[in-house]
Amino acid sequence: MEYTTTDAASTQAVGAALAPLLQAGDVILLDGDLGAGKTTFTKGVAAGLGIHRNVKSPTFNLIKEYHQGRLPLYHMDVYRLEGVGGADLGLQEYFNGSGVSLVEWSQFVAEDLPQDFLMIRLQKDDDDFDRRKIIFTPHGDRYATLVDQLAQQLHTN
Ligand code: ADP
Ligand code: MG
C-alpha cells in the first residue's frame, strides 16, 4: 500500500490514523533517509495514542518510552548502533512487551528483529521538497490485516 503526503502535518495524520488500529506487541520499522519523516510519522502515532508529549528522535538514548497513552509507545532510534548491533539492549523485551515499538534505522539491529513486522518506508521526492511517498509493506498476517485496515481508514477520510 502506498500513500503520498505533501506536508509534514499530513504525514503525522497518517500516523494518527494508524494509532487506533495498533495492538500491544506490534512492531513497526520506519525506513528512509535522514529527514525523510520517520520521527514526524512517530509524532502522529503518539498523538493518535493520546500521548501529548513532544516526541523527539531518541538518537542519544536510543529508546524512549511513553506511558501516557492508550498503549505504551517504545520509540527507538538505533542509528548509533551501526556496525554494533542491538545484542545488549534487550530489544526483545520491548518487541514482546505490552506496548507498540516504532524503530528508526532498524537495519542496524537486523539480527534482533522479530519475524513479523510492518515496514513503513518514507521516500523524499526529487522535485517537491515537502512531498513524501509512504510505502507500507506487511510481513506476516497480523500486519497484512493492519495495512488493510489502514488503507480503509485513509480512503474513507
Ligand atoms: P527522520 O526522522 O526521518 O530523520 P524527521 O521526521 O526528523 O525525519 O524530519 C522530517 C523533516 O521533513 C521535518 O522537518 C518535516 O517538517 C519535514 N517535512 C516536510 N514535508 C514532509 C512530509 N510530507 N512528511 C514528513 N516530513 C516532512
Ligand atoms: Mg528521526
Automatic annotation (TrEMBL):
One of its GO terms (biological process) is tRNA threonylcarbamoyladenosine modification. Its main location: cytoplasm. One of its GO terms (cellular component) is cytoplasm. The keyword Protein transport does not apply. It is found in: Cytoplasm. GO terms for molecular function: ATP binding; hydrolase activity; metal ion binding. The keyword DNA repair does not apply. It comes from the Bacteria. Keywords: ATP-binding, Cytoplasm, Hydrolase, Magnesium, Metal-binding, Nucleotide-binding, tRNA processing. NCBIfam families: T6A_YjeE. Belongs to the TsaE family. This is tRNA threonylcarbamoyladenosine biosynthesis protein TsaE. It comes from Ligilactobacillus saerimneri 30a.
